[in-house]
Amino acid sequence: MPDFRFAPLNPLRFPIVTRFYKSHYPAGKPKKDEVIWTAEGETGLCGAVRFKQFDTFQLLTGMLISPSFRGRKLGVRFLEAVDGQTQSTPCYCLAYRYLTPLYETAGFRVIGKSQLPAELQGRYSSYCNSGKDLIPMLHFPIASR
C-alpha cells in the first residue's frame, strides 16, 4: 500500500487545495477560516478534508479523495489520521448516505435531524431540499463508543 502523509494544511499551500477542490469537487470551496487537513502521496495532493468551526462544535465538510485514489481505503486512513481533530470539539458530519459506513468506521454515528445544533438544521434541510441524500452524523470519542 502506498505511503501517505496526513497533516494540517500549511496556509501557504491554500491555493493548491483550492485548485484541488475546483478540479474534483467544485461545490466544495475551501475557506481560510476552516481547519483543513491534507493527504499527500508520492504524486502530491490526493485528499483534503475541511472542518468548519462554530462556537461549541465543528462540522466535518467537503472530504475529498482524488478519483484515482478512491476504492483504496484512503478515506478510512484519512479519517483515522484526523481523529485528534474530530475528538477535540464535538464534530458533526452531513454525510452522503452511501458514505455512512465509511464514517461509522471512524466513530461517527447516525443521529436525528433534531439532534443537530440549530446552526446546522437549516443547512441540512436546505441541502436535502436541493436533492442531496444526506445523513446527519456525530462523532463519538473512543471512550464513549
UniProtKB/TrEMBL annotation:
Residues 1-142 form the N-acetyltransferase domain. Gene3D superfamilies: 3.40.630.30. SUPFAM superfamilies: Acyl-CoA N-acyltransferases (Nat) (SSF55729). Signal peptide: none annotated. This is GNAT family N-acetyltransferase. It comes from Enterovibrio qingdaonensis.
